[in-house]
Amino acid sequence: MLAEFAPAKVNLYLHVTGRRADGYHLLDSLAVFGPAGDVLALAPAASLTLALEGPFGGALAAEPDNLVLRAARALAAAAGRPAAAGLTLTKHLPVASGIGGGSADAAAALRGLHRLWDLGLDAAALAGIAASLGADIPVCLGRRPMRMGGIGEVLTPAPILPACGLLLANPGLALATPAVFRARQGGFSPPAALPTRWPDGPAMARDLAALRNDLEAPAIALCPPIGTVLAALRSLPGCLLARMSGSGATCFGLFADAAAARAAATRLPAGWWREAGGLYGEAG
Ligand SMILES: C[C@](O)(CO)[C@H](O)COP(=O)(O)OP(=O)(O)OC[C@H]1O[C@@H](n2ccc(N)nc2=O)[C@H](O)[C@@H]1O
Ligand SMILES: Nc1ncnc2c1ncn2[C@@H]1O[C@H](COP(=O)(O)OP(=O)(O)OP(=O)(O)O)[C@@H](O)[C@H]1O
């Protein structure tokens, strides 16, 4: 039995820089991971099966084509072998919430099945399969802070990040990514100019404050409670910056460290989904 952790993806900023002829949008974004995630367990089996567990497993019960199964079939096809494995997805991340839960799960399936099936594909081949499944999946494969370009699949190094804390909050409302892109008005933003490193959380927050998430305004227009979540995060002691992630509705608060983020989480309404801690795979 193998297990793969599938941490939430958080877009610290997201500029929509253009639009391709096929309708997909060109992005410039800084993605980080944590502090919550799904877990995918994988075991040998005679056929491909998926069991759903966890607080948000039920929300996916009616999903006809779970991204985990699509990832398994795509990897098996690329490797020329049958797609056979027993998978159990424990869903802790809210569905359709801007933190790439489905993408993280698909990336976990690619990593885990690559090990379970002992495939030996190179990183570029895996990244190509990931990109064919969704714009957020390549960055989720690495689970490391990365700058996203292209439609999300062009990955370049992120600035060296300081230890910091993140608090994620969602009012319990799902938002479909295509609808948010469609609701966007106005022109495009230039790519950000970023330093090679940030010495501490406050310095990072100062630079990030000059940037934005271009999907925040259209998401608030479609889902006004996002504005309430942002205001609540901004009012918390120690919150350095509050912003929406991806296409929403999940928002994040940035804190100097994980302890400050955890302490602040307890002050948010108990009915909201709230998770706090440090960045995945980084100090803090
Ligand atoms: C907004 C982000 O979450 C930022 O990380 C991602 O770009 C979205 O990634 P994703 O959910 O994996 O996106 P996909 O499943 O590939 O695309 C869903 C839909 O979102 C829109 N979409 C997505 C990515 C992109 N760069 N431009 C787009 O316009 C398209 O309408 C597309 O049909
Ligand atoms: N394993 C999965 N987890 C979540 N959603 C899935 C999964 N498989 C398929 N889906 C479908 O994908 C849609 C988008 O879900 P997801 O949770 O990845 O959205 P998101 O967090 O907004 O992603 P992003 O930040 O990449 O836009 C869901 O509405 C659901 O229909």
Explain the layout of strands and helices.
Elements lengths: L1 E18 L5 E19 L4 E6 L13 H13 L5 E6 L10 H16 L6 H11 L3 H6 L3 E4 L4 E4 L7 E6 L6 H7 L17 H9 L6 H7 L2 H10 L6 E4 L6 E5 L2 H8 L7 E6 L6
Parallel strand pairs: 3-4
Antiparallel strand pairs: 1-2, 2-4, 2-5, 5-6, 7-9, 7-10, 8-9
Helix pairs in contact: 1-2, 1-3, 5-7
The site of adenosine-5'-triphosphate has 19 residues, from helix 1 and helix 2.
Written account of the structure:
It holds the Pfam family GHMP_kinases_N. Pathway: Isoprenoid biosynthesis; isopentenyl diphosphate biosynthesis via DXP pathway; isopentenyl diphosphate from 1-deoxy-D-xylulose 5-phosphate: step 3/6. The active site is at residues 9, 136. ATP binds at residues 94-104. This protein is of the alpha+beta class. It folds into two domains: 2-155, Ribosomal Protein S5, domain 2; 158-278, GHMP kinase, C-terminal domain (Alpha-Beta Plaits), CATH 3.30.70. The protein contains nine helices and ten strands. It has helices at 67-79, 101-116, 123-133, 137-142, 177-183, 201-209, 216-222, 225-234, 258-265, and strands at 2-19, 25-43, 48-53, 85-90, 146-149, 154-157, 165-170, 241-244, 251-255, 273-278. β5 and β6 (154-157) form a beta hairpin. Adenosine-5'-triphosphate (ATP) binds next to α1 and α2. The site of adenosine-5'-triphosphate has 19 residues, from α1 and α2.
